[in-house]
Amino acid sequence: MQRVSFQLRIRPELVDEYVARHTPVWPEMLAEIAAAGRRNYSLFLGEAGTLYGYYETEDDEAAQAYLAQSEIAARWEAEMAPFFADLEGRPDQAATLLTEVFNLEDQLAASGAAKR
């Protein structure tokens, strides 16, 4: 399982509307995300409109390709694009990926330590 995290920046004046648009997300878009193979997907809002995302997938390249070809995802991303600052391209395809530096389960498994 791959763990993927990314960062985007929402225009500060549009943060409230962005949050409202995700409460809830279109059911057909939720289905496309799941069909792409993304699981345990979360978005976190930080200071000054910084958005952090996280999901797990078996094959991120395949998930990206699936969503890149999806008409539903294209419509959703076109509606979301104006919310983001300093972004060229679709938000789902152009987000800045973050490097994982620590994972508890991986280190516990590597050390042979039992989970408590």
TrEMBL record:
Q: List the molecular function annotations (GO) for this entry.
A: racemase and epimerase activity, acting on carbohydrates and derivatives
UniProt record, GO biological process: rhamnose catabolic process
Extract the Pfam families matched here. rhaM
Q: Which domain of life is it from?
A: Bacteria
For this entry, the protein name equals L-rhamnose mutarotase
The protein's organism comes out as Gulosibacter chungangensis
